[in-house]
Amino acid sequence: MTTITTTCAGCGRTLAIPERYLGRDLKCPDCGHPLRVAAPEATPPAPPEPPFSAPVFPEPAPLGPGPIPTTPFEDFDAPLPGDTPLPTAAVYWRVKRVGALSAATVSAIVYALFGLLVGIGVAIASLVAPVAAIPFLRSPLLGAAAVVALPVAYAAIGFVLGLAGAAVYNLAARLAGGITLLLE
Q: 6 pLDDT exceeds 90?
């Protein structure tokens, strides 16, 4: 059984009235105020959705003199019909915070590579350089130790400096707003 929901104008009570009383004059059971049961307002049907249309591709150019395209979309920069061009204005981005751990990790790797170069230089120098006063400096063991120890030491120093640098940048960016980058 379908019901029609209405509100009494006298007391404001919400009433659920069976559909068979549609169009009749009734009284509210609480306050006795007369009310007429009207048909619920019909909602207009939704407009039909447009049918799906597949994209229309231009006809391929006939083969002739000139370069043959390797892909159907060789010129990616050329706008398609109906496309709006992208804005060419400069875009500014602000670096407000740097991840301290990621900055420290990258710094440690850069310092370790630099330490490896210095270690290779020390290893070559220990084999070639004449050091008569200190004979143990002229051994291959010193060169091997330098190639291993210097990158590790430099990586540790780089990690600490990267961590400190990121923390100082984040503090300065909080006070000054960060670095503004221009991207095109």
A: no
The separation between CA 4 and the C-alpha centre of its own chain, rounded to angstroms, equals 50
Residue 153 covered by a domain: yes
What phi and psi values does residue 49 have, to the nearest 5 degrees? -75, 145
User: What tens digit of pLDDT does each residue of 93-116 get?
Assistant: 788 889 999 999 999 999 999 999
Q: Is 176's pLDDT higher than 70?
A: yes
DSSP output for 5-74? EEE-TTT--EEEEEGGGTT-EEE-TTT--EEE-PPPPPPPPPPPPPPP-PPPPPPPPPP-SSPPPSSTT-
- Name the percent of the chain lying above pLDDT 70: 65
Burial call 28-58: b when 16+ CB within 10 Å, e when fewer: beeeeeebebeeeeeeeeeeeeeeeeeeeee
Q: Does residue 145 form part of some domain? A: yes
The reply to whether 128 falls in a domain is yes
Residue 65 lies in a domain: no
In tens, the pLDDT along 53-62 reads 666 666 766 6
CA–CA separation, 5 and 37 (whole Å): 9
Q: Which domain holds residue 175?
A: 92-183
